[in-house]
User: Fold this.
Amino acid sequence: MRVFRVARLAARERHVIGLLRGADPTAVSSDMHTLFRRLCVAASAIGYRAAAIDCACTTRQELCLLGCLAALQRDNPDVLLRVADPIRPITLLCARRLQAEGIHLSHATISRLSGLPDACAELAISPVPTTFQQPKLVRRPLPPAPGSVQERALDLVRTYGVTSSRELAASGISRQVVSLMFKRGLLVRVGTGNYRAAAETVRG
Assistant:
């Protein structure tokens, strides 16, 4: 279970690890020590195993609780992780108490959670996976070729506004041409069988 040497952690993280291990209560305010003792008791009830105070390495469960505390210091923790009811209330109190003392845990502390799935599952903590969506490219439709049937159709629709496919057919514009222009983004369908020119094609 040991994964990190405590000495490699940031000073604030080492401080919190000490609290989780029951560090000397004289080194911190009594209410802080009491809150963290309550957190350890609640977490122990669902499988948390505390490391010895003088242990040189952290455990995965300690890093998981550390990340949980960091996430609960944020304004919108629910977009980062889900914490089960048995430990959420006291963990939230501890996170806020740390914040009140000026002990702000970094996003790097939260990022470690993604590499600790088993430890998080043991403590009923579920990091919310982040998904990146490539922004869709909005391309302007290519204008129809000069003198083409599509150009004539577009001129008609610009002139009359919303135009039905029947009106276009009466002007010699086939449904196939209208359908192709719709697919190319030159026309926008308005209701059934009615079209208007796409905003990108309207001349200023």
Observations:
- The domain at 149-201 is CATH 1.10.10.10 (Arc Repressor Mutant, subunit A).
- The chain has two domains: 2-127, 149-201.
- Residues 30-44 form the longest helix (15 residues).
